[in-house]
Structures are given as structure tokens and as C-alpha cells.
């Protein structure tokens, strides 16, 4: 049975939920939120924004209103799965290239030598790298005589289709990459083509840091033989158009920032950055306010660790604490304790390390409001659930992901079905909540006025910021030229100030939303190209700033790791094609086939622990233990086990008929909250020390 929520739900007595009118839901949200805000201020409030925010234009364009205004009212930090995902990439992008979403992607169609680390596009379809048929594009590299190397502790489907699979011990990618850089330098293979010569600072400093990581030294720790490391370096050096790409397996690990950084360092050292066939900066057709530096990051460069979390003292990074801090900030008494939580399209009770503590903490909130369409592991604790319209009832236009796309496109999709006129859109709900945090009783918030205020605020901030296309423009004039309201107005703004836009009247004949709408199949406006460095870099120097104390300082932590022999098993994460994090397990058609929530283990490790295929094992970490069925497979490198994330359904109070019949096990019950990649405050869910034992059933 499906159980998509279409009417607001409120908690009645004894955990029972009742369907209520929108007016009653808003009144109830007000009744719960107001005392917290009045007594404790916005400091007692947190907002959690989940992954689908990025795939829903109304949420993507308006979560900034809630987070920004709540921040202005005193909310300390907000939470997202960014800190179990791409935060290291954001940090590195900000420091090296100037913007947190500003990074080059591999030019898949022209490279002849790709090394891919910690990514499995056969399942994920590519991440921070948007392209249709990514597996076809990888196959094409080989068909034209090129090479694809996959570095991953698991021989994934992607690795199977590659030229070579290089198993690596989880968490040690940075050592491997340093050793490759070391080898390139030793061979005299650092390329400094003309286009980079005056555009890069600090490469020599990084090469000097690499001196302590020769292949022979890192081989025992990484599990990659020294000859293989030298061969990988030679392969890159000999290729015409080499490039490296990394993703989540190299981010959510002990040295996620260093590993992600070194991928870009190597791309620079190979002369690949900003060169066709190498790593190119996509040109997004739609400008997004996300691309500008947040107003609280005043001054040149970026600052991190401007404030720290109350309980464990974790450093903020881009205004966020590691997502696992949420639980302790709710359940630890004292001034500044979180008493109210708003979740938007997120399921942190499953997706956040230390999930057991969060699940126990959520019932302790005075007010929990969720914008979500499912009664799941997280929203079952909400006092009020406010559901959005179905994806078929709302328009769509991507924004963020064009920053990582292999072509410059734009497409506006009108709703397929007429939206129910009696239901608010999610962006309106966000504005209402934002107004309530600012002090207006929630039912009385003037959503239209809030929308104008927010849009004017964006135009004003962009007009003050050098790295936006609105810099120096007269805000009132720009705002007056925009029509309508809601996401359509913001997307119209983004298209018009984008590279193909009409520049708000200054470039007659340029694109507007209206012009884009006339092409329901979308417009393909440009291809990836090189030679754009001067235009894309927004660092203080205007060059690629390859070293930063924050990065260089973390090398000492890495150097300590080289000689630490970790002989025990390491737990890693994985995803599957037919699910999306935690929330497609309720779709019957996607749940056919055998159980996917298994612990993958190499036959040697299985035999050593007396565990056979299909048996149940207990996986135990510093955080706790779970029981999970075992799948013995030589696709895992010895010493490493893999569990998918997003499972652990079947909890009381949820309404997920299909998912609850295939509950699986929540990997984040055993991922410890305190394991983080230090510079980026990112959770470690790859390379977690664990033990296993058979369970007698
Ligand atoms: N161990 C481990 N943990 C991980 C990861 C891992 O690899 N290993 N990966 C991490 C990553 S990369 C991510 S992105 C996170 C995901 O973490 P979350 O974003 O917290 O979780 P999701 O499973 O994506 O949950 C999405 C929620 O949004 C709701 N939803 C779906 N569509 C919409 C919509 O259009 N509107 C609204 N309002 N709600 C909607 C769904 O019902 C669901 O409740 O998990 C992270 N956690
Ligand atoms: N079908 C489907 N598509 C998705 C998602 C989904 O759940 N299902 N989730 C979406 C989201 S939110 C995201 S963030 C992206 C993520 O997209 P990807 O980054 O491609 O993520 P995964 O498919 O989890 O692949 C990560 C790989 O890293 C490997 N790995 C683990 N530890 C290490 C390590 O220490 N070093 C190296 N080199 N590798 C390691 C794992 O074995 C795994 O093969 O996918 C997105 N796309
Ligand atoms: Mo993600």
C-alpha cells in the first residue's frame, strides 16, 4: 500500500495521528512553536534540510528564506546531509576556486585516461557530475582506446566495466594521491601548460608536502602496491588528456578533504584543469543565489570554524555542524538546548550517523514540524506534518546541478496535473514558517509580502556581491523588472542574469523564463569548453589557490595515519540503482528481487569469522551493534565490508506498507557520530573500524 500524505497530519493523543485542515495545521504549528520562540528564542530552533530539497524547485529556491531568516533571528546552525556527503568538495572548491559550488568536472567525452575514486555511477548515475548515460560515456572512453581506472575497495559494476580496478583501503585515498603526485614530480612529469602558468599558486608547496609520501611508504597502508602506484602515475603522465574525479567514498572518510583536494591538485599538476579532455568548469545557464558567497562570509577568502557547537564543540563549516550533532544538541540539557526542529524533505533518523541517539532524542522536542509526504522513521516524531504537492502537480527547473553538467542546458517543466487549489505549495509553507520565526503568528503570515521581501533581499545581496552577475545593479530596478512570484520569479531572474539571459533588459533577445517555456523539451545552449579560468575563479587572488593553511595543516594528521596499521575490518557504505537514499523503498516495483540490504564480505574474511553466505552476522562498532544478512563475494577487497545506507524501516508509528515489509538494517546505528574528517566537519561512514561475528539463528 502506498501512503503518500496529501493532507496535513497532527499528533493527537498517544501518538495517534489525525488528518486536519490546513488552517488547523498552521494553528497547531503556531501553538507549539511560539512558546519555544518566545521563551528561548530562535537559538532553540534548528532546521534540517534533506536531500530532495535539491531536486524540487520550490524547496531549492525557498529553503534559503527559512534558514536565512531563522539565522537572522538567532538560530545558530542548520543541518543537512551535506556533512555526510560532499562537504569536503565544497570546502576545497571554496578555497581553490573561490565558490563552494564552483569546481571543474571531468570532460568525459574527450578524456583518454580517467581515474575515478570513491564513485559508483553504475548505481548513482554520477554525483556532482550530471550527464545522461554516464555508463555509456565511460564505455566510450575505452572504445576510443582510452583507459578508465576505478579506485574503490569494492569491485563495483563501474569497476567491472573499467580497464582496471584498484582496490584501496578505505580512508587512505589521500595517501595514494600524494604518492602519485610524488611519483609524477620525481619523473619530471609535472606539466605547466601556458594556460595555467600564471593562474596557479602553491603547486610547488604541495609537491614539497608529497615528498614524505613515496609509493613504498604508503603501499602497506593503502593496500595498493608501490609498483601499481608508479604505474598509475605513469599512465597519467603518458596520457594525452588525463583527468581524475572523486566522489562520496573519497569524501565521507577520515581524510575526505585532503583526498578531494589532491584530486584537484593532480588535475592541476597534469595541466588538465580548464583544458578540453581534462577537468572543465561547466557554465550553468541558470544563475542561482546559491552560487554567491553568503552575506555572512564577509571579507576576502572564506572563514570556517567561526563558531562551535554547544555540546561537542564541533566547528561550523558553511554555517553547519556535522549532522550527528543534532541529537546531542536536543538531548543535552542546558542553555541553548534545541527544543524545536523543522525538517524539510529529510530523514535524519535513518541518514545520520549516531541514528540511535537521534531517534531517542526526537520525542524530547517541544515542537517538531516536518514538510514531507511520508510518515517515516523521522516524521513519525513530528507533531505536525505539512505535505507538499506531488512532483506531477508542481513545475520543475533544475538549478544547482547545472553547475556540474556536461552541457549548458535549461528546461522548464510545467505541472503535468493541475495542482489542488486548496493546498499550498512547499515554498509557501517555507515562507510561512520563516515569517513565524520572525514573530508573526504562523496563520497570519502574509506569504506574498514575505515572498517579495525575500526576493528583494536576494537581488539586493547579489547587487552588493562582486562574484554575481547582478553586481553593481540597481536592486529596485531589477526587482521591478521581474514578474509574478514564487519559484517562477526566482528562476526567471536566474535565467535572465545567466550567460544566455536578457540581462534584465540590457541584452535584448536574451533568454527569459517566458522564452524558455516556449521550448518544453528544453534548450541546449553550450558545451563544455576550456579557457574559462579568468571568468570562473572568484578567489581573492583571482588564481587557483592550491594551498591553504587549513589544507596543509591537515597533512600532519595524515602523516600520523601512514604508520598506523589497522588490521581489523573496516565498514563502508554503498548505494543501489533502484533506491534513492531512504525513500524509494516504499515503491513496490522498485523492491522486487532479492534482499539488497546485505553485508558484503570477502570470502577470506567470511571464512576467518566462520560466516557463510546467507547467514546473519552481527556488525559491531564503537557505536553499537546490528544484525544483518551476509553476502559473501570476492567483489570486496579483504579487510573491508560494505553495507548500504537508507534502510532500517519497520519502526512503530510509520506508514510505509512496502518498505516496512522489507525493513533492512540502518547502517547509521553503527556509524559513530564522533568520527569526522576534521577540516570539513564531515561524518566518516567509509572506513569505520568494526568487528563481526556469526549469529546463531
Ligand atoms: N551510512 C551512510 N549514511 C548516509 C550516506 C551514506 O552513504 N552512508 N549518504 C548520505 C547522503 S549522500 C545523503 S544525500 C543523505 C540523505 O539523507 P536525507 O536527505 O536525510 O534522507 P532521504 O533518505 O533522502 O530522505 C528524504 C526525505 O524526503 C522526503 N521527500 C521526498 N521527496 C520530497 C519532496 O518533493 N518534498 C518533500 N517535502 N519531501 C520529500 C522523503 O519522504 C524522505 O522523508 O544520507 C546520508 N547518509
Ligand atoms: N540509484 C541511486 N542513485 C543515487 C543515490 C541513491 O541512493 N540511489 N543517491 C544519490 C546521492 S544523494 C549521492 S550523494 C550520490 C553518490 O554517488 P556516488 O559518489 O557515486 O556514491 P556510491 O554509489 O555510494 O559510490 C561510492 C563508492 O565509494 C566506495 N568507497 C567506500 N569507501 C571508499 C574509500 O575510502 N575510498 C574509495 N576510493 N572508495 C570508497 C564504495 O565502495 C562505493 O562504490 O548518488 C546519488 N544517486
Ligand atoms: Mo547525497
Automatic annotation (TrEMBL):
It comes from Mycolicibacterium psychrotolerans. Pfam families: Molybdopterin, Molydop_binding. This is Molybdopterin-binding oxidoreductase. GO terms for molecular function: iron-sulfur cluster binding; metal ion binding; molybdopterin cofactor binding; oxidoreductase activity. PANTHER family: OXIDOREDUCTASE YYAE-RELATED, TRIMETHYLAMINE-N-OXIDE REDUCTASE. Transmembrane segments: none annotated. InterPro entries: Asp_de-COase-like_dom_sf, MoPterin_dinucl-bd_dom, Mopterin_OxRdtase, Prok_Mopterin_Oxidored. It comes from the Bacteria. The lineage of its organism: Bacteria, Bacillati, Actinomycetota, Actinomycetes, Mycobacteriales. Keywords: Iron, Iron-sulfur, Metal-binding. Belongs to the prokaryotic molybdopterin-containing oxidoreductase family. Residues 569-671 form the Molybdopterin dinucleotide-binding domain. Residues 4-434 form the Molybdopterin oxidoreductase domain.
Amino acid at each position: 500500500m502506498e501512503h503518500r500524505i496529501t493532507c496535513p497530519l497532527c499528533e493527537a493523543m498517544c501518538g495517534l495521528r489525525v488528518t486536519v485542515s490546513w488552517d488547523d495545521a498552521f494553528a497547531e504549528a503556531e501553538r507549539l512553536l511560539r512558546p519555544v520562540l518566545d521563551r528561548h528564542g530562535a537559538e532553540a530552533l534548528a532546521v534540517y534540510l534533506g536531500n530532495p530539497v535539491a531536486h524540487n524547485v520550490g524547496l531549492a529556491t525557498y529553503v534559503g528564506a527559512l534558514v536565512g531568516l531563522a539565522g537572522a533571528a538567532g538560530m545558530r546552525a542548520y543541518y543537512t546531509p551535506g556533512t555526510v556527503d560532499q562537504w569536503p568538495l565544497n570546502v576545497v572548491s571554496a578555497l581553490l576556486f573561490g565558490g563552494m559550488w564552483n569546481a571543474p568536472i571531468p570532460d568525459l567525452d574527450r578524456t583518454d585516461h580517467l581515474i575515478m575514486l570513491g564513485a559508483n555511477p553504475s548505481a548513482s548515475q554520477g554525483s556532482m557530475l550530471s550527464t545522461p548515460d554516464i555508463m555509456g560515456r565511460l564505455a566510450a572512453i575505452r572504445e576510443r582506446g582510452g583507459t578508465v581506472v576505478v579506485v574503490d575497495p569494492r569491485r563495483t559494476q563501474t569497476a567491472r566495466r573499467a580497464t582496471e580496478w584498484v582496490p584501496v583501503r578505505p580512508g587512505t585515498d589521500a595517501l595514494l594521491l600524494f604518492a602519485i603526485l610524488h611519483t609524477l614530480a620525481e619523473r619530471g612529469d609535472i606539466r605547466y601548460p601556458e594556460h595555467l602558468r600564471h593562474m596557479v599558486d602553491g603547486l610547488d608547496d604541495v609537491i614539497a608536502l608529497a615528498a614524505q609520501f613515496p609509493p613504498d611508504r604508503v603501499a602497506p597502508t593503502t593496500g595498493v602496491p608501490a609498483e601499481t602506484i608508479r604505474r598509475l602515475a605513469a599512465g597519467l603522465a603518458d596520457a594525452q588528456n588525463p583527468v581524475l574525479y572523486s566522489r562520496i567514498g573519497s569524501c565521507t572518510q577520515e581524510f575526505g578533504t585532503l583526498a578531494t583536494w589532491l584530486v584537484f591538485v593532480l588535475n592541476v599538476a597534469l595541466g588538465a584543469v580548464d583544458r578540453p579532455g581534462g577537468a572543465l568548469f561547466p557554465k550553468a545557464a541558470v544563475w542561482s543565489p546559491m552560487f554567491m558567497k553568503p552575506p555572512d562570509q564577509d571579507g576576502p577568502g572564506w572563514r570556517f570554524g567561526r563558531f562551535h557547537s554547544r555540546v561537542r564543540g564541533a566547528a561550523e563549516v558553511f554555517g553547519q555542524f556535522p549532522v550527528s550533532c543534532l541529537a546531542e544538541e536536543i538531548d543535552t540539557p542546558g542553555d541553548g538546548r534545541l527544543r524545536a526542529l523543522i525538517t524539510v524533505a529529510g530523514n535524519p533518523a535513518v541518514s545520520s550517523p549516531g541514528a540511535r541517539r537521534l531517534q531517542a532524542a526526537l520525542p524530547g522536542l517541544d515542537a517538531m514540524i516536518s514538510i514531507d509526504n511520508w510518515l517515516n522513521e523521522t516524521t513519525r516524531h513530528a507533531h505536525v506534518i505539512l505535505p507538499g504537492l506531488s512532483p506531477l502537480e508542481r513545475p520543475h527547473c533544475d538549478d544547482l546541478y547545472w553547475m556540474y553538467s556536461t552541457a549548458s542546458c535549461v528546461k522548464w517543466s510545467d505541472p503535468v496535473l493541475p495542482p489542488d487549489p486548496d493546498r499550498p505549495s512547499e515554498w509557501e509553507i517555507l515562507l510561512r514558517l520563516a515569517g513565524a520565526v520572525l514573530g508573526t503568528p504562523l496563520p497570519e503570515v502574509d506569504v506574498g509580502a514575505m515572498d517579495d521581501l525575500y526576493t528583494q533581499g536576494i537581488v539586493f545581496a547579489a547587487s552588493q556581491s562582486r562574484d554575481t552577475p547582478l553586481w553593481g545593479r540597481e536592486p529596485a530596478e531589477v526587482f521591478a523588472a521581474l514578474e509574478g512570484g514564487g519559484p517562477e520569479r526566482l528562476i526567471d531572474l536566474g535565467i535572465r542574469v545567466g550567460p544566455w539571459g536578457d540581462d534584465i533588459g540590457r541584452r535584448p533577445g536574451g533568454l527569459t523564463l517566458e522564452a524558455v517555456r516556449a521550448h518544453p523539451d528544453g534548450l541546449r545552449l553550450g558545451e563544455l569548453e576550456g579557457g574559462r579560468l579568468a571568468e570562473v575563479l572568484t578567489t581573492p587572488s583571482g588564481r587557483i589557490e592550491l594551498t591553504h593553511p587549513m589544507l596543509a595543516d591537515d597533512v600532519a594528521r595524515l602523516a600520523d595515519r601512514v604508520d598506523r596499521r589497522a588490521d581489523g575490518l573496516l565498514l563502508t557504505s554503498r548505494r543501489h540503482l533502484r533506491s534513492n537514499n531512504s525513500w524509494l523503498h516504499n515503491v513496490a516495483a522498485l523492491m522486487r528481487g532479492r534482499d539488497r540490504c546485505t553485508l558484503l564480505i570477502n570470502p577470506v574474511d567470511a571464512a576467518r569469522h566462520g560466516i557463510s553466505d546467507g547467514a546473519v552476522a552481527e556488525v559491531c562498532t564503537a557505536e553499537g551493534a546490528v544484525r544483518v544478512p551476509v553476502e559473501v563475494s570476492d567483489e570486496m577487497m579483504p579487510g573491508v565490508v560494505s553495507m548500504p545506507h537508507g534502510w532500517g524501516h519497520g519502526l512503530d508509528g510509520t506508514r510505509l506498507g512496502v518498505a516496512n515489509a522489507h525493513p533492512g538494517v540502518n547502517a547509521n546505528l553503527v556509524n559513530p557520530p564522533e568520527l569526522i574528517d576534521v577540516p570539513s566537519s564531515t561524518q566518516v561512514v567509509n572506513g569505520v573500524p568494526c568487528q563481526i561475528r556469526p549469529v546463531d539463528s
